[in-house]
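Structure tokens please, single chain.
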Amino acid sequence: MSIRFAIVGCGRISERHAQHISNVGELVAVCDIVREKAEGLAEKYGAKAYTDLDEMLRYEKEVEVVAICSPNGLHAAQTIAALQAEKHVICEKPMAINPYDCGEMIKAAERANRRLFVVKQNRFNPPVAAVKELIDAGKLGQIYSVHLSCYWNRHNAYYANSWKGTKALDGGTLYTQFSHFIDLLYWMFGDVKEVTAYTANYHHQGIIEFEDTGVVNLRFYNGTLGSVHYTVNSYQKNMEGSLTIFGEKGTVKIGGQYLNELEYQQIEGIEIKDLPPGNPPNQYGNYVGSMSNHDHVYANLVQVLTNNGIIATNGFEGLKTVEIIDKIYTAAKPL
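Here you go.
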């Protein structure tokens, strides 16, 4: 019997989830406080529409997995409610917008003996996966330093009449736009010990309640030095999402607009070649997101729930991303 799913939050990203759910299981219920959104998604996939999460969890007893696709600031409460209803949960990024909430989500999953999956699709980008494999095998030797560039565009219309840009539901540019990128720093190089940072809101004053630009210096526990330059002020369109790595035995740059291209490599005795083509980015009308790897995310979920597979990104790893972002914002000096 196929896995039965429900979706909470019927905005843009929910369509991506619904599409891949239909490939691996059955979407039986959707929920959104805006009835028209819930009914529109439900009609397309033959699901039942709800406007109240508690009601959906109460009546949809056969749902096994709940996908949380709502605004960032709602992730924690909705995830905990679904776990307490004894559902597995797959939560969109960011897991939450503060470390405390992440911890409560993890505890709720443990108490319910249910799985908590966190969407971190950049891990599946072919050049990212290839470089991660080399790092884990020690082929780059000691990692000396790394630099993460996040140069995207989010125009004022993106934030208009939306929860995006609010401190309470969005949380900050690093949470909504670049948490996938911060996740890769933890996944590839480990935890961060020290942070210094400057942030500023240059182009979105009166539009968003936080920064649109940041420059960050990092020191990892393993001694690696790192830097991050991020902005949503790239003129008119996304420019680049890249990660450059300087190691004892090699230098690598993964680039493109969303870490989708292997732009440079010089590695002792090794050449990365014949990478499979990656998926296109998520398209959201007037703006573009990260590479669309939700197919891999859902394939992993099915493997974990039906075949004792190893979870790709668990709640602890989702927490670490949020902790690093929280460290950056705590250390940041606004200009």
